[in-house]
């Protein structure tokens, strides 16, 4: 058969042009991956027409390789530091420098309109290079939990990127006390739809926000740093299209409260998260509580009862984020009221119980109510003080839409009602077949080796797992590693496994491409780690450090444990490791 | 540093254990030594928080250091306490830093002498046939130490954003009050 005929046979008789059109409708990255594996022709068409790529760890490939394969990329997401960086566990200078990528983008990616950098180091100079080459066409720039830049860099963006629709700097560490960049943004841009500098320390002047609202009539989402809400009265009157507002602050909670009551929120506002909001101020939400779809109460001063009072007015809530001060009682209200709830995050409150509501604990009672009441739940992340197998079984029975489940057992209570959780975890994983992301952080005795084996056995769809303080011995880990056919990313903390077992598990898990471990049984000279050495597998060792500032513990105890990070890479060994990171090579 | 620092060492290469084993029959003193030659399983600095007085002040006339290390044979990493050096310990209520190295981590505690002794006793008793405890991944503390919450493990890390919020809230609670100064208003 001639090559041309073979080609047509492989393409089902479809011409190349038609194929390109068809593949233009195929967006899902998994579908695209499948397409690229069919034959060389399909690989080429996919490569030239791929619009978006997410690189889960920036050292797994190189900017040059990306350019050679996907030269017409319109949107790129890059992730740098390991996830543990969000918990202060990774040295600041670990890596994730965006410089080499920006240089490649500036030179070669002529179609790039959208850039999302997560947990990377971005310097002002990088911004300068980026906006010089791509500023005129950049529509979306997200610097998500990044560090290294200053307000000077933001000024460059504000002046050069007139097409920017989305600018997000959420939780980034940005130095500089200058608020000029917001003014420049307001003056130079008229198409901005989303501006987000939530959870930053950036200064903001209310009049610049008003100017922004006047000039950018499409502004639908604004999330800012701390700025007393009463200064935004004019802003809210001007930004009539606003649907989402986050940040702000309530600085005067003992004086004149009327000034907060005077605020008139925009008519379409349905996503709200106000920092330091207290019981007295939450009434300003009541007039439109029934329209609320997203509510972030993680940074408020509300008690358990306050949560109940507020949430019972929100029957249309789809996304709710709270601390565990919500308590079982609050979860009962959620279960009865929020029938459309899709995402629920219950974060860990202050350990100092004097500051949090006494009722502020979540346990099996709250979880069971929640499971039975909110059948649409897709994402559940919860810090509990107590738990039972029955509660997990309940979730397995009712929460059929669950895709992302994370449970952390706090160490507040000495005795937990029902451990180990082997049967509950099994029931949960069996019942919730759609789960793709799974985290379980317990305490010794929380999950036996048998339970760990269950996780392996029933995690058919799971791509990411985080486990802490689970299992009893290496046997458990090895049993676990016989399952989890699709597990790509594994994070382990504070476990009792030896280096040898970790290495064997890493070799055995068929889809594993990323492993992070902190807290394990080390071999005397670390050589068991090299049992998992293989081609294209980068291993990094971060030895324990002694830096008081870097730990959460403020009682003067200096403490830090060694970490192992391993990942597949086509880019070879890293060349930019700091002293605190040791790349391991087999001898 | 001037007044007779006391170093207590655990011999993680088991040199003392081997020596003591050969002298066990002959030497009465080494009976004490062999009693103390115990294997320490998962004793973790965090385990000891419950015994540490919160108000302990730093005044080190003597230093005590326990070197614990784990080997590649779980769950019995070996440590040896050499009692001969320990004999210098004075009876005093002053606190001294106790440094514990374990499994790649280091923790420093300021303890009065009697608590340090208790901890060292705990190290000895921890593995007397307590394999079932090890299966549960913990060490049963002697009664007198079993007070309050037991934190046996490395502290659970908290998200940065929440950490900042909790710190700010504490700040506001101390600063705020009916007589607190008015906060500066930005220019309009």
TrEMBL record, chain B:
Regions annotated as coiled coil: none
Family note: Belongs to the TIFY/JAZ family.
Its job: Repressor of jasmonate responses.
Keyword Ligase: no
Superkingdom as given in the UniProt entry: Eukaryota
Location of this chain's protein in the cell: Nucleus
GO BP of this protein: regulation of defense response; regulation of jasmonic acid mediated signaling pathway; response to wounding
Protein's name in the database: Protein TIFY
Pfam families: Jas_motif, tify
Organism listed in the record: Zingiber officinale
Region (Disordered): 126-156
GO cellular component: nucleus
Free-text domain note: The jas domain is required for interaction with COI1.
Compositional bias segments (type: Basic and acidic residues): 133-149
Family matches, as InterPro entries: CCT_CS, TIFY/JAZ, Tify_dom
Sequence ranges assigned to domain Tify in this UniProt record: 91-125
Main location group: nucleus
Keywords from the named record: Jasmonic acid signaling pathway, Nucleus, Ubl conjugation
């Amino acid at each position: 058969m001639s090559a041309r005929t073979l080609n047509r046979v492989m393409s089902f008789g479809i011409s190349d042009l038609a194929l390109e059109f068809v593949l233009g409708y195929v967006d899902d990255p998994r579908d695209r991956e499948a397409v690229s594996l069919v034959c060389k022709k399909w690989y080429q068409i996919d490569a030239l027409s791929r619009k978006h790529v997410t690189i889960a760890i920036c050292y797994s490939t190189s900017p040059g390789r990306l350019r050679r394969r996907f030269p017409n990329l319109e949107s790129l997401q890059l992730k740098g530091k390991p996830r543990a960086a969000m918990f202060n566990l990774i040295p600041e200078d670990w890596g994730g420098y965006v410089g080499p990528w920006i240089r490649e983008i500036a030179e070669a990616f002529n179609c790039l309109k959208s850039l999302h950098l997560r947990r990377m180091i971005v310097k002002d100079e990088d911004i300068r290079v980026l906006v010089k080459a791509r500023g005129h066409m950049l529509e979306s720039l997200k610097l998500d939990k990044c560090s290294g830049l200053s307000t000077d860099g933001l000024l460059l963006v504000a002046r050069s990127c007139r097409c920017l629709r989305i600018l997000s700097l959420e939780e980034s560490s940005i130095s500089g006390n200058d608020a000029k960049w917001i003014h420049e943004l307001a003056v130079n841009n008229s198409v901005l739809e989303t501006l987000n500098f939530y959870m930053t320390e950036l200064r903001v002047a209310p009049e610049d926000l008003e100017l922004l609202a006047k000039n950018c009539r499409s502004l639908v989402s604004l999330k800012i740093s701390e700025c007393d809400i009463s200064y935004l009265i004019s802003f809210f009157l001007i930004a009539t299209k606003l649907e989402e507002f986050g940040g702000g602050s309530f600085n005067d909670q003992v004086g004149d409260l009327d000034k907060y009551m005077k605020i008139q929120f925009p008519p379409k506002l349905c996503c709200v998260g106000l920092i330091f909001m207290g019981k007295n101020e939450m009434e300003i939400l009541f007039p439109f509580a029934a329209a609320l779809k997203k509510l972030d109460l993680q940074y408020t001063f509300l008690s358990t009862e306050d949560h109940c009072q507020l949430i019972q007015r929100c029957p249309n809530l789809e996304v709710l984020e709270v601390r565990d001060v919500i308590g079982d009682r609050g979860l009962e209200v959620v279960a009865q009221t929020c029938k459309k709830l899709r995402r629920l995050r219950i974060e860990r409150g202050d350990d100092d119980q004097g500051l949090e509501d006494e009722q502020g604990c979540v346990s099996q009672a709250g979880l069971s109510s929640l499971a039975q009441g909110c059948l649409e739940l897709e994402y559940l992340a919860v810090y509990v003080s107590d738990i039972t197998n029955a509660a997990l079984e309940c979730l397995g029975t009712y929460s059929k839409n669950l895709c992302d489940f994370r449970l952390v057992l706090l160490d507040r209570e000495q005795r937990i009602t029902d451990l180990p959780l082997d049967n509950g975890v099994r029931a949960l994983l069996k019942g919730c077949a759609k789960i793709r992301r799974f985290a379980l952080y317990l305490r010794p005795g929380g999950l036996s080796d048998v339970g760990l084996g269950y996780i392996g056995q029933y995690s058919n769809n799971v791509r990411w797992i985080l486990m802490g303080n689970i299992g009893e011995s290496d046997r458990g880990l090895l049993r676990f590693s016989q399952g989890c056919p699709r597990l790509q990313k594994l994070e382990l903390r504070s476990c009792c496994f030896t280096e040898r077992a970790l290495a064997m598990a890493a070799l055995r898990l068929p889809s594993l491409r990323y492993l992070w471990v902190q807290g394990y049984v080390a071999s005397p000279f670390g050589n068991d780690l090299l049992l998992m050495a293989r081609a294209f597998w980068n291993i990094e060792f971060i030895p324990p450090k002694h830096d008081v500032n870097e730990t959460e513990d403020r009682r003067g105890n200096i403490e830090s444990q060694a970490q192992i990070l391993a990942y597949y890479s086509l880019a070879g060994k890293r060349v930019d490791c700091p002293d605190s990171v040791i790349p391991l090579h087999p001898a | 540093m001037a007044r007779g620092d006391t170093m207590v060492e655990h011999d993680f290469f088991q040199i003392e254990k081997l020596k003591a084993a050969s002298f066990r029959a002959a030497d009465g003193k080494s009976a004490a030594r062999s009693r103390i030659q115990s294997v320490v399983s998962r004793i973790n600095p965090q385990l000891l928080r419950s015994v540490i007085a919160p108000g302990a002040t730093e005044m080190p006339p003597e230093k005590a250091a326990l070197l614990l290390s784990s080997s590649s044979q779980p769950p019995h990493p070996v440590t040896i306490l050499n009692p001969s050096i320990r004999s210098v310990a004075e009876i005093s209520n002053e606190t001294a830093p106790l440094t514990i190295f374990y499994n790649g981590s280091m923790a420093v505690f300021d303890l009065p002498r009697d608590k340090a002794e208790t901890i060292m006793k705990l190290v000895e008793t921890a593995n007397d046939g307590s394999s079932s405890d090890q299966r549960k991944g913990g060490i049963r503390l002697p009664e007198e130490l079993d007070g309050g919450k037991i934190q046996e493990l490395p502290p659970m890390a908290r998200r940065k954003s929440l950490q900042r919020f909790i710190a700010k809230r504490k700040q506001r609670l101390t600063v705020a009050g009916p007589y607190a100064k008015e906060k500066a208003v930005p220019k309009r």
